[in-house]
Amino acid sequence: MGLQSLLYISESTIEPCNAQGEVERILATAHTFNASVGVTGALVFTGTHFAQVVEGEETVVSELIASIGRDERHTKLEIVIQDPLTARRFPDWSMAYNGPSQFVSRHVMRLLNDPSRSESSRAASWLAELLEQFSGFNGGAHKR
Ligand SMILES: Cc1cc2nc3c(=O)[nH]c(=O)nc-3n(C[C@H](O)[C@H](O)[C@H](O)COP(=O)(O)O)c2cc1C
Predict the structure, then answer these.
(1) Least reliable range by pLDDT among 22-36, 51-65, 100-114, 115-129
(2) CATH class for the domain made up of 3-137
(3) What one-character-per-residue DSSP string does 1-28 give?
(4) Contact 33 CB / ligand 1 (< 6 Å)
(5) 73 alpha carbon to ligand 1 midpoint, in Å?
(6) What span, in angstroms and rounded, lies between the C-alpha atoms of 93 and 23?
(7) 73, 16, 79, 78: which is closest to 47 by C-alpha?
(8) How do residues 66-85 score in pLDDT, each as one tens digit?
(9) Assuming Cys at both sites, which of 4, 17, 62, 98 could form a disulfide with 134, CB separation 3.0 to 4.6 Å?
(10) What ranges do the domains of the chain cover?
(11) Which of 71, 74, 95, 144 to mutate to test the pocket of ligand 1 (most atoms within 8 A of CB)?
(12) What pLDDT was estimated at residue 37?
């Protein structure tokens, strides 16, 4: 069994006034559970959309994504990248989080609105890289 990396985007269904509390709850769950099963990754919330990288053992990642997919705090979950992984991009993070970012938001939107496949995959690897860079900027609450 190998490591797998998965990037998805989804549309938030959270009322804006509840957003901060809900995202904190998601991160608290993620922090505890992910650390217990060896999952690492990064989450971005744009205010309207989520983008998340999840990395770990293939079976663990599939099960987690299935459970995340059933979560009613978002909808229209779309897997953008699903790749075997030789080395983790976020080895130190049970779930890195940097809050709303206009910059990342633009890339999530570009990905959502782009019908061309080659463009999309370029935007997708951009996004994965951006998330990786953000996880390096802040120390903090969700380090493993
Ligand atoms: C955008 C988003 C990201 C999430 N990320 C994680 C995560 O990384 N790890 C985790 O354990 N739960 C995460 N959750 C929470 C799960 O969807 C779910 O609430 C949790 O796994 C418990 O599921 P269960 O009650 O069906 O067992 C996330 C939820 C949302 C909406």
Answers:
(1) 115-129
(2) alpha beta
(3) --EEEEEEEEEE-S-GGGHHHHHHHHHH
(4) yes
(5) 9
(6) 16
(7) 16
(8) 999 999 999 999 998 888 98
(9) 98
(10) 3-137
(11) 71
(12) 98
